[in-house]
Amino acid sequence: MLTTMNQLKQLIAQIQQLFDIDLFQLGEAPVTLWIVLYVLVLALLFLYLTARLRDWVVRRLLARTNMELGVREATGTIVRYVILVIGFAIILQTTGIDLTLFNVLAGTLGLGLGFGLQNIVNNFVSGLILLFERPIKLGDRIEVGNVHGCVVRIGIRSATVLTNDNIAIIVPNLKFITENIVNWSHVEGKVRFRVPVTVVMGTDVGLVERLLLEVGDEEPAVLKDPAPGVRLLHLSDRGLEFELRAWSQSLIQRRGLITSKLNVRIYEKFNAHGVEIARPRYDIFTRDG
């Protein structure tokens, strides 16, 4: 029994000696394998705990208030990053490493960021601006560049936009700061749709206006207040160019669907009342011989 205990003590001593091997010097402080493992384990644990803390702040603590989900998400993210910065500083300090040594590293890192990581820094700063100014928020229907969809996630580097085809597109935050954004649901939950239609010259204008208003009134997705409207926009060589303007609140996320529904109703109404939709006309000239 005594021999076994001695062997166990020797094994523990050997492990301690292995972990106490100096890997490199950071200033006057030696960095051992034990310090590296210590920082790594605590960092991973800290990342996990702060992620759980963020979820608790967003879904438990702030859920009791009247804050919107986007504001709660932004607040939780900011709280997490603040705690991460403080926590990593405390972890490094407990190892005995002098944090003033990181001044030189920070200067070197800043020089590297200025050249090689400029886009990453720009996206990071843009993410902070999005979190504070909130030009977009979770659930918004947006258009940025060729991307059309619903915002399902706003991160510190990028945002995730889900299209109607259920395709997630990762958009760098910088795009939301430097480019024009069309936000269909930023102000109110209702949007006006414009459906153009052209009829042949000579058609009864009053009849066309009445039929288009009936289309707007009969479509369930169109709001009654504000009421639909009709405008005669142009008298062109193509014919009489009308536009049906209708407000909707339920189909903002599916703009193509409401436009299709209104077009189908317009086509059926016009056919039933003998209203002819204008077609392209061409003049053909022939030469003798």
Poorly predicted ranges (pLDDT <50, ≥5 residues)?
none
Shape: elongated
Distance between the termini: 121 Å
Number of strands: 10
Strand order of the largest sheet: 6-5-4-3-7
Q: What is the structural class?
A: alpha+beta
For the record, the count of structural domains works out to 3
Distinctive features:
five-stranded antiparallel sheet, Alpha-Beta Plaits, 49% helix, 8 helices
Helix and strand topology:
Layout: H1 2-19, E1 22-26, E2 29-32, H2 33-61, H3 69-94, H4 102-115, H5 118-133, E3 141-144, E4 147-154, E5 158-162, E6 168-172, H6 173-178, E7 182-183, E8 191-199, H7 205-218, E9 229-236, E10 239-248, H8 255-272
Antiparallel strand pairs: 1-2, 3-4, 3-7, 4-5, 5-6, 8-10, 9-10
Descriptive account of the structure:
- The protein has 289 residues and is α+β, with helices and mostly antiparallel strands.
- The protein has 3 domains: 2-116, no CATH class; 129-183, Roll (SH3 type barrels); 191-272, Alpha-Beta Plaits, CATH 3.30.70.100.
- It is built from 8 helices and 10 strands.
- It has helices spanning 2-19, 33-61, 69-94, 102-115, 118-133, 173-178, 205-218, 255-272, and strands spanning 22-26, 29-32, 141-144, 147-154, 158-162, 168-172, 182-183, 191-199, 229-236, 239-248.
- The protein is elongated, with a radius of gyration of 32 Å.
- The protein starts with a helix and ends in a 17-residue tail after the last helix.
- The mean pLDDT is 79.
